[in-house]
C-alpha cells in the first residue's frame, strides 16, 4: 500500500482521473487540480466514498496561468504537510496541419503541454528541494518518439519537449529526487474518444492506467505503457523511415 501524498494535474477526466482512483486504492492522499472544478468535486466524492481514510484536496488550476501554478502547489503542500509525488499530467490534444490555419490551436497545445508543464516542474522542484526529496512524474506520449504528421505535429513536439525537460532535471541528480517519464501508448480517454478512426492498439482507460501506475510505483526512469506492444514499437519508431512511422501512428 502507498503512503504519502500525490499531486495530479489535469485530474478531472481521462488518465488523470483514473490515476487518482488507482492511487487512492493504494492508500495515497491526493491533491487534485484541473480547470473543471465540478468534475473534480464529483471525483473527490467518489474517492471519499470508496476510500474514507484517504484525504482528497481539490483546487481549480489552469496550468497556463503561470503565476497560479506555484500558488496552488504550495497551498496543497501546506494543507497536506508535504507533497511526495507530483504527476505533471495536464494536457491538450488540439492540432491542425501546418499551413492550414492552425496557428491558434497548435499554439494552445504547445503552451499547455510544454510551457504549462515547465511551470509545474518548476513549482514541484521548488517544493522537493525545500523538503529534501520527492518524485517528479512527467506524462509524455508515445508520439514524442518521432515527429508526427498532420494534426499530431504540434502535440508530438510538445510531448518530446516535456520529456527532454524531465531528462534534464534527472541529469542534475538533485538529492532525494526521483524522476519518471511515462510514455503512454494509445489509451482510451476524452482526448482520443472523438477520433473518427480509433488508433491501432487502443486499450481501455483502466488497463492503460494500471500499467502507468505500476511503472510510477516502481519509480522507473522511462516507461512505455502498456509495455506490450509499445516497448518494441518505440524502438522501431526511432529507427524506421518516417513513411512507416506514419502508418504505425495510424496517420
From TrEMBL:
InterPro entries: KR_dom (IPR057326), NAD(P)-bd_dom_sf (IPR036291), Sc_DH/Rdtase_CS (IPR020904), SDR_fam (IPR002347). Belongs to the short-chain dehydrogenases/reductases (SDR) family. Keywords: Oxidoreductase. The keyword Oxidoreductase applies. This is SDR family oxidoreductase. It comes from Nocardia fusca. SMART domains: PKS_KR. It comes from the Bacteria. Residues 4-190 form the Ketoreductase domain.
